[in-house]
Amino acid sequence: LVPANDNFTFAPDNSLRPPSKAVNQRDADLVHFWDKFRKAPEGSARKAEAQKQLAEAMAHRTHIDNSIKLIGKLLFGIEKGPEVLKGVQPAGEPLVYDWSCLKSLVRTFETHCGSLSQYGMKHMRSIANICNAGVTKEQMTEASAQACTTLPSNSWSSLHRGFSA
């Protein structure tokens, strides 16, 4: 049995696999929208709406992925940023040493960059690593504001459901 901190959780960005019996929970929305799109009659309003939903979900994922990567580079530099974000705590160590820091930095990110959503939870380790590196809320605010100058105007980025942490 491998401890959770030894797991590597980064999956290929925005990968759509053909339907199978098991679907990663983070991909369930995409599979649903893809299925709606595939089954809708050609040229119908239903097909156009399903295509719009699929495109918005994909745009949100790309926005979240790119924002986290850019924040890492802004905070730690072009070379060290990705290394810090993908770091894994040694077995037996907690994901984050200061849980209030994690909650604060998630809220800071979401205030400037939009909701992480279920998909964005995959970046929780990266935000924990940012906390573990000693980044302050003020530094995260500045980096998030620089990385996210605009928010996608779709329901995926909205904070109407509240913060993720």
Automatic annotation (TrEMBL):
- Residues forming the Legumain prodomain domain are 52-148
One GO biological process from the UniProt record? proteolysis involved in protein catabolic process
Could you cite one Gene Ontology molecular function of this protein?
A: cysteine-type endopeptidase activity
Region entry Disordered: which residue ranges?
A: 1-22
Question: Could you name the Gene Ontology cellular component terms for this entry?
Answer: vacuole
Q: Which Gene3D superfamilies match?
A: 1.10.132.130
The record's section on InterPro entries has:
Legum_prodom (IPR048501), Legumain_prodom_sf (IPR046427), Peptidase_C13 (IPR001096)
Annotated family: Belongs to the peptidase C13 family.
- What is the official name of this protein in its record? Endopeptidase 1
Name its species. Answer: Plantago major (Common plantain)
What gene makes this protein? enp1
